[in-house]
Amino acid sequence: MTMNIHQPSKTPSGKDLPSILCLHGGGTSASIFAIQTVRLRRALASHFRFVFVDAPFFCPPGPGAGSATRGGNEEGRVLPLLRKTMAEDGGDFVGLLGFSQGARLAMGLLRQQQEGRAEAIGGFSYGVLLCGTYPPLSLSSELLLPPGATPRTAQFETQHFNEEDEGVVDIPTVHVVGDRDPYAPQSRLLVRCSKRESRTVMEFDIRHNLPVKPADTQRLAERMVRLHRDWVEVQQKKKKVESLGKGGVEVEVREVEVEA
Question: How deeply is 209 buried, as exposed, middle or buried, from its count of CB atoms within 10 A (0-12, 13-18, 19+)?
Fold first, then answer.
């Protein structure tokens, strides 16, 4: 199910806010992820809409998650659910926000989109991966692994990776890694799935949770706004070149309004 939360849907000037699809971690739920992201959402309330969706499976609860928890990665149910959520919401989905297992799923969705697979949802311009675990969920029989990796090295073993290895996903990503997170080795392996030139890594003094210090939250929020602005600038340049080449009129690409 999709979780509806009270949030602005338009900028102060009346433009529709771009939407971000939010994917919770294993053993939690959409409502728990909404609570986990409350500080970040407050900082970005005038910039994005956040749409939360429950995984279609019940599973054992994660640490501190209580009993109403969900998870799982079956392609036959997850992808239709995400398509249905986005279609019913009707928003302009520009990005993915995933935590823990949700970050694994986000990376898998970006890979499918980049490769143009028939099952890909498509349309995402960037992903923000919070304390991601590893390996990515490809939602198919094929594991998504960085160059040089094997299923064995995916079991948290980093010593077999060459520092010069590059990832395969070139859709822009921001990776949040917790310095005290027991899953930090997995988060760093997930980083390696993104190409070096298209990824940003942000490390915080946290465990397996979102940043809680106001300064850290603001830093992450600013990076997300900049990520969207960079994408807008690229799209504007492409539209301008296409327009000039065809002798047409430039097409406007909506930019997130940033308060002074």
Answer: middle
Which residues partner with 174 through β-bridges?
128, 200
> For residues 98 and 107, what is the distance between their CA atoms, to the nearest angstrom?
9
CA distances, 102 to each of 105, 119, 160 (Å): 5, 18, 26
SS3 2: strand
Q: Express each pLDDT in 154-207 by its tens digit.
A: 443 343 343 434 578 999 999 999 999 999 999 999 999 999 999 999 999 999
H-run or E-run covering 178: strand 173-178
List the structure tokens of 101.
């297992």
pLDDT at 245: 65
Secondary structure of residue 97 in the 3-state scheme:
strand
Alpha carbon 142 to its chain's center? 21
Residue 189: exposure state from Cβ atoms within 10 A (0-12, 13-18, ≥19): buried
Query: Which amino acid, 197?
Result: E
**18-40 tens-digit pLDDT:** 999 999 998 889 999 999 999 99
- Written as one letter, the residue type at 76 is G
- 16: phi then psi, degrees, rounded to nearest 5: -65, 135
Cβ–Cβ under 8 Å, residues 153 and 163: no
Q: In this structure, are strands 19-23 and 49-53 parallel, antiparallel, or unpaired? A: parallel
Count the residues in the chain.
Answer: 260
Cβ-Cβ contacts under 8 Å for 64 (sequence gap 6 or more): none
Active site residues: 100, 181, 208
